[in-house]
Each structure stands twice: as structure tokens, then as C-alpha cells.
Amino acid sequence: MKRILVIDDEENLRDTISLLLRARGFDVVTAADGLAGVKAARAHKPDLVISDINMEPVDGFMTLSIIKQLPATGRIPFVMVTGDRELDTMRKGLVLGADDYLTKPFTPEALLETVNTQLKRRESDIEDAITLVTELKEQLAGVGQDDVGETLEEIRKSGERIAASEDGTDGIRALGAGIAERAVGLRRSILHAGILARIEIVAGNPDALSALRRTATSDLLDVVDGECRQLALGYERVSDLRLQLAHCRVAVGSAALSRITHELAGNALRHSPAGTPVVVKCRVADQSVQLSFENKIQRRAPRTVPGEPECAPKDPWPDFDGGQGLRFVRRLTQIHGGNFSVVPKDQGMVAMQVELPLAKTSTMDGGEEADERG
Predict the structure, then answer these.
(1) Beta strand 288-296 pairing with 339-344
(2) Which partner from 28, 234, 255, 327 sits 20 to 30 angstroms from 61, CA to CA?
(3) CA-wise closest residue to 350 among 310, 321, 328, 327
(4) Dist CA 143 CA 150 (whole Å)
(5) Could you tell me where the beta strands, DSSP code E, fall in the chain?
């Protein structure tokens, strides 16, 4: 049911318009002045606003201006009602963003025609926006990531060669190391953007989303254990890894669970000091399992280049407090019916927690006690 907000300080006219609209099946919200109208627009998010111009203390022009400037209401069609047939009055409203005018006195047919026209136009605008967003997502999902990845890999290698060269100054070698680091970060960002685009395409298709949640399953211990051990080996942190996992089938495919684990375990290993524990554990409940990645927080050190002022990192915890990697994990978890959170712990520790639904056929091997592995 479409919702229409009617703003008018004349009670009789406000009630008449409301009665006509309700008789045609619309949900109507009313406001007796401009200020109340702005509050109602923010609270009820109507599909259309019909507002008188001559009101006190906030007139229709100011009401229009405020509603159009607010992000939450700025795209709502706005029809102005006036007894003034002067062209300057209409022009002022159009400049401020009005979509149409009704001139008093008007017939019920004129009111309904104006309402239906604006609602159809709004639906068309929304459909066009959805089509555009879908096309952009598909283009991003199909971007030539292999080609871009190869180019960035060459840049990374060149940076590392500069950093390792015995020729040149310390500043040049530091610059080479910085180039290599940025190439790695950019490659990860492009990878995440492509995967996020594919996730949003699935999320926007109810049939595909339902099928995904119905058919995707994997064994948590088998996937998470192997991924964490490989990452710890790569970061030379095998002795720091503490695994407390259990066999259980989750309603998430192995590829998605592997990617979630890769991001969170990699994040924990990258942003914690060597020699401190990185704990990966799970807790199984009746219908879900909580997978937790805990590590000690380590701020990034300032970047230093000999002969230049010390440069503090723009974001010392780019992934910890909402970087692209964690946004990707959050969205991937959500489309599988789960939740993601970051929880500060005592003694400078932080836990990145993923709650995932258990598959309907989920069973535990040997009870719910976690399998502790070092």
C-alpha cells in the first residue's frame, strides 16, 4: 500500500484530501503544519508528499526545501497545493524541487490523476536505478581481475627489486618497499570489489538467495582448520596459532567459509605482534555456531623514509575497524543468514566473531567439545 503524507494547516481541506485518498486504497499520514510535516516525512518515509504553501510558522516552500535536502527523504515526489496561479510562485517551487502543482480549487479527478502520475514516475525512477545498479554490479563482477592482478603483481615485483637493490639511497629502497606494499593492497581491494559485486547480484535475486541458503553446506573444522594452518605457515606464525574447533555442518558452502576464514585469520595474523597467540575457536548452539578469531591489537608503525619527516599511517587499523576486507566478510555472512561483529576484549585483545546457521542435518562428532589443536 502506497503511503501519502498530506500537509495542510486547513483542517477541512486536509481531511477532504485524506478521505479521497483513503477511499482509493492509499495509506494517509497527515500533518497540520510544515514543521510537523518534516518530522512525519522523516518518521514515515511516504511515497508522496502533498503540501499546502501558505502555512505558519513554516510555509510550504521551506517544508519542500528541508525535505528535499534530507538524504532519507530527498527523492520523495512533492506536490504543492496553492490558490495562487502566479507563474513566479510555481517557478519558485520548481526551483526548490517540487515535482508538480495542484491549484485550488481542484477536482477529485485532478487530485487522483496527479497522485497516480507521480507514483508511477517514482516507480519508473526506482526501476531505472535498480537496472543501472545491477548493470554496474555485473560489469564490476566481470572485470578482468586476472589482467589487473597480473599488472599489479609486476608492479609489486618491481617495487621489491628496488627495495632489495644495493644501488641507490635508503630513501629509494624505502620507496620501492612502499610501492610493493601498495600494489598488494590494491590487488586485494580489487578482488574484494569483484566478489562483493557478485555477492550483491545473488542478494538481489530472491530465488538465487533461497537456493544458496538451502543447498550450501560444509564441515567447519575441515575448512577452517586447513585454511588457518596454511595462513599461519605463510606468516611464519605457526607456533602462535591456537585452534579450538569442532566438527559441525554449517549452512555455508566451503568456498565462502574458506574466504571468510582467510580474511579474518589473515587479519588477526597481520595485525598482531609475533609471539602473541591468535586463537580461533567455535561454540556450537542449537541452531548456529559462533566462530571467533581473537588476537592482540597492534597499531601500525609510522612509515619512515630517511631524510623525510615521519609519516603516520592514515588508518592504523584499516581492516580492524571496518576496512574493505571486513565489510566483505560482513556481507558474505549476511547473505548466508549469519551475523558478524568485532568485540573488544581485555588486555588489548579483540575478537572478530561470525555467527553462522547450522545445516539442518548438522551433527557433532564426539559431542560439542571443541577439538583443541596448536
Answers:
(1) unpaired
(2) 28
(3) 321
(4) 13
(5) 3-7, 27-31, 48-52, 78-82, 100-103, 218-219, 241-245, 249-250, 278-284, 288-296, 339-344, 349-357, 371-373
369 in the same domain as 228: yes
Give the single-character DSSP code of 306.
T
**pTM of the complete model beyond 0.90:** no
Asked whether residue 168 falls in the same domain as residue 246, the answer is: no
Helix (H, G, I), strand (E, B) or coil at 79: strand
- Omega cis (within 30) before 57: yes
Full pLDDT tens readout for the chain, 374 residues: 899 999 999 999 999 999 999 999 999 999 999 999 999 999 999 999 999 998 888 888 989 988 888 878 888 999 999 887 667 777 788 878 888 988 888 899 999 999 999 988 877 766 655 554 455 445 444 544 455 666 767 777 777 777 777 666 677 777 777 787 777 767 666 666 666 666 666 666 676 666 666 666 789 999 999 999 999 998 899 999 999 999 999 988 888 898 899 889 998 998 899 999 999 999 999 899 999 999 987 655 544 444 444 444 443 333 443 456 777 788 888 888 899 998 888 777 889 999 999 987 644 433 344 555 55
**Is residue 315 one of the residues assigned to a domain?**
yes
Range of the domain at 69: 3-134
Residue with cell 620507496: 175
Sheet holding 100-103, edge to edge: 27-31, 3-7, 48-52, 78-82, 100-103
Query: What's the rounded Cα separation, in Å, for the pair 277 and 268?
Result: 10
Residues 188 and 274 in one domain: no
Number of domains in the chain: 3
Task: Tell me, yes or no, whether 209 lies in a domain.
Answer: no
